[in-house]
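Why should sequence recovery work at all? Because a backbone constrains its sequence more than one might expect. Tight turns favour small or flexible residues, buried strands favour hydrophobic ones, and helices have their own preferences. The token representation captures these environments compactly. In the example below, the structure is given first.
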């Protein structure tokens, strides 16, 4: 039940003011619900406190009037059975309200007693308009007080020191889409910014849905650095902009010549073509990414432009060193140049070093039996020695192909934080065919 309520709260939060209106209506009616959580989440997301106050007050008033009309029907057995309001409690409430009239609707905001007051006013057939107006006034006052308390809490929370290194809590925040971008950004920003990733470790950026807490965090960020073409970004970017209208957005893949995600599939079972978003899996592309991040940092912090340029030069040298090491490795004669991978995340890597990537996944779905048969035949024909699998995907189909062809299934992680180490580790796996542990190379 708690999981259902939490899911409903997240859904209503996504609906903005409309979601708050609905949650307040539920809270004011016979259905137990907490509109306060939705209201706090929306304020943290940057929605207008006045707009939230209006939506919550109107919704809660409408919800309270549903109790009034249920009482007006006069079905005492319904009230006892479905509303769980006992007859003696209603009688006591009615005796208390005698002579006071519709203005007592003001107190319908009170917990526990408020529902009984609204029902009792309906049973007494008090004036509808006076009841609604007095109820509106009481609920407006309640939500106004609640809003002031919330803003005080949010202010206290934002000023509270966190368990982070000294000074980190006071740094401006940059949100990046994935861990490799955090690696580059932290190398360039040093201690000038706190950098956080939207997609956590072990999650697939093709299908990731940010949590309400992440949307709140994004509203506090100075900027968002996109990978450029990841499916979750395409689906969520407008929502990001709506929730944080002042957020600066930078495309770290700007200027990179883009590739199709499945060039090798031309002779296999038919499959559609799409832009490959994994631009960071190439040292050639990484130079663009580093330059784009540097430009973004200089735009955000003009006082330290020279500092960012200096770090950019240093990081570009490291990227070029990785590229040089990989070119030497893959220039060896007689190496196997075809490899199989579950999700085609190494398209640009394969392009740079003359390799052939054969993806198992088809259009983001598990392969059908006909495709599995074709994959096994292709694996044998291309003399594939290794099948790569990322941690966020199931190994089942890769294991079937490996068993049928005598190849090795080896985990790789193109989304790893340490971009340099993972690039060299991936090369070691491909060169060894997965038959030995990758050599640890310090970049």
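From this structural description, the recovered sequence reads:
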């Amino acid at each position: 039940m708690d999981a259902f309520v939490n899911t409903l709260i997240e859904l209503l939060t996504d609906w903005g003011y409309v979601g708050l209106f609905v949650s307040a209506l539920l809270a004011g009616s016979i259905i137990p619900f907490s509109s306060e959580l939705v209201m706090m989440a929306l304020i943290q997301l940057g929605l207008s406190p006045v707009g939230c106050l209006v939506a919550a007050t109107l919704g809660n008033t409408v919800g309270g009037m549903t109790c009034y009309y249920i009482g007006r029907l006069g079905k005492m057995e319904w009230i006892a059975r479905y509303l769980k309001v006992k007859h003696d409690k209603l009688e006591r409430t009615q005796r208390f309200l005698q002579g006071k009239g519709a203005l007592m609707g003001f107190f319908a905001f009170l917990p526990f007693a408020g529902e009984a007051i609204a029902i009792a006013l309906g049973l007494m057939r008090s004036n509808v308009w006076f009841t609604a107006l007095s109820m509106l006034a009481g609920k407006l006052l309640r939500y106004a007080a609640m809003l002031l308390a919330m803003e005080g809490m949010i202010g206290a929370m934002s000023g509270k020191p966190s368990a982070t290194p000294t000074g980190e809590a006071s740094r401006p925040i940059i949100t990046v889409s994935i861990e490799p971008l955090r690696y580059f950004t932290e190398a360039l920003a040093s201690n000038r910014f706190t950098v956080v990733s939207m997609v956590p470790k072990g999650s697939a950026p093709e299908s990731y849905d940010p949590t309400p807490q992440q949307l709140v965090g994004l509203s506090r960020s100075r900027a968002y650095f996109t990978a450029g073409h990841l499916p979750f970004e395409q689906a969520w970017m407008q929502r990001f902009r709506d929730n944080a209208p002042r957020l600066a957005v930078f495309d770290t893949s700007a200027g990179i010549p883009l590739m199709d995600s499945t060039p090798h599939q031309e002779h296999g079972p038919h499959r559609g073509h799409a832009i490959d978003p994994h631009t960071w899996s190439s040292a050639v592309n990484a130079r663009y990414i580093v330059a784009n991040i540097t430009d973004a940092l200089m735009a955000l912090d003009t006082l330290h432009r020279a500092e960012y340029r200096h770090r950019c030069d240093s990081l570009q040298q490291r990227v070029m060193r990785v590229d040089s090491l990989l070119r030497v490795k893959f220039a060896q004669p007689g190496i196997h140049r075809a490899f199989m991978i579950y999700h085609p995340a190494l398209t640009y890597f394969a392009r740079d070093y003359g390799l052939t990537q054969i993806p198992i996944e088809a259009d983001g779905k598990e392969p059908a039996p006909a495709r599995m048969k074709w994959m096994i035949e292709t694996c044998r024909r291309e003399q594939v020695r290794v099948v790569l699998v990322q941690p966020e995907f199931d190994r089942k189909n890769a294991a079937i192909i490996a068993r049928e062809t005598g190849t090795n299934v080896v985990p790789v992680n193109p989304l790893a934080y340490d971009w340099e180490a993972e690039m060299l580790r991936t090369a070691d796996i491909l060169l060894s065919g997965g038959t030995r542990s990758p050599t640890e190379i310090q970049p």
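A few observations help interpret the result. The longest strand covers residues 173-176.
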